[in-house]
Amino acid sequence: MLTGPALRERFAALDHWLCQHRPLWQEAPFTHAQLSWESAYPELAQWLREQTLEHAERYQGQPHLLRSAPTPFSALAAESVQLGQLDALPTHSQNTVAARYAVDIPGRKWQQIDAFASILPQASNNTHWLDWCSGKSHLGRHLLHRLGGELTSLEWDAALVDEARRLTNEHNLCASHHVQDVLAADCAAQLQAEHSPVALHACGELHLQLLRLASQANCTQLAVAPCCYNRIDGPDYQPLSHAAQQAQLQLSRADLRLTLRESVNAGQRARRLRDQSMARRLAFGQLCQQRLGTSAQQATPSIASKWLGLPFHQWAEKVAEYRELELPLSPSDDALEAQGWARLAQIRNLELLGNLFRRPLELWLLLDRALFLEEQGYRVQLGTFCPSSLTPRNALLLACKR
Ligand SMILES: C[S@@+](CC[C@H](N)C(=O)[O-])C[C@H]1O[C@@H](n2cnc3c(N)ncnc32)[C@H](O)[C@@H]1O
Which SUPFAM superfamilies did the record assign (predicted)? Predict the structure, then answer.
């Protein structure tokens, strides 16, 4: 767990390291055929390009375990582990919640919620939870069961709010569920000093808005597990804290995509379909380049994933038709799909180097939020609330007014 002066110290170390190695993580192999660092480390580049897709898959979420890659991979991996280290937050052993309350909640979500709740200190009777971007407010109801207090939840999807109300009634609980766009100007009025906001996986701008509004409203405690750091307004990341505003590192929305690269939760079938879709996109791009002299890789429509059951040439015909391209295809073009798979394997293996910077970059972003809350008069603890196997977005900021 990070707290006190360690927040600022780690932030400074990360800022320096991420800036120093920016060329190694900033360019995405998917969009750059040749990466600028390859000329500096030709042996590493060549080695990574020769590995299989299974190899990339094995190390994708744990690139620091890859020991056999040429230099400077191992040295960077050691630094990545040290700088990206985030320990678990202390847990509190309050009453657990009866398993029957978990019936309406998907298993993994239940485990995340239970872990999140175990981090929160014992509530008093007048604790008023504010479940931010609450979905069906599973988290809010869990806190009522487990810790008591009152509950208000905010969510903009009316169908989810209706479902939250139904579940709350079914469990004989008392709570207010509101349809609210948390980014709308009228949302500030929903936050009061007596609220204890909680946010489990509120995306980019949504949790940033909570940090701003909750500190303005002087809320005494808040607990936030951020996700989707790249979902921000505008093309550039606007740091919250003075420390990050003065930092060397400046980030674009494209840079923030690196934080999403770990996808431990996708099942085998989903991963296979995602890979096939990517491989075909790459093969189609190569085809357009060879026959039409254009690169169409970026423009493959998302609907193309629905046609994946077709042989490659028929799939490509449909994509070409959709994009109004004159691109004659025949069954012999099915062999081209293999080129897409080969290129995908290269991309995924080249990405392993950038993946060493994923957690450190996420931590830089988390520390920006933590330091902002400190500047607003909070004592902040930053750590994990569950293992990364349950969700790769397992970091939680716990802030209490000093
Ligand atoms: C990843 S889900 C998390 C839901 C819930 N916290 C949970 O863990 O189950 C994000 C939620 O934010 C809601 N949301 C997205 N944009 C919103 C907005 N502008 N205002 C309020 N809610 C929003 C979505 O409808 C969705 O329910």
Answer: S-adenosyl-L-methionine-dependent methyltransferases
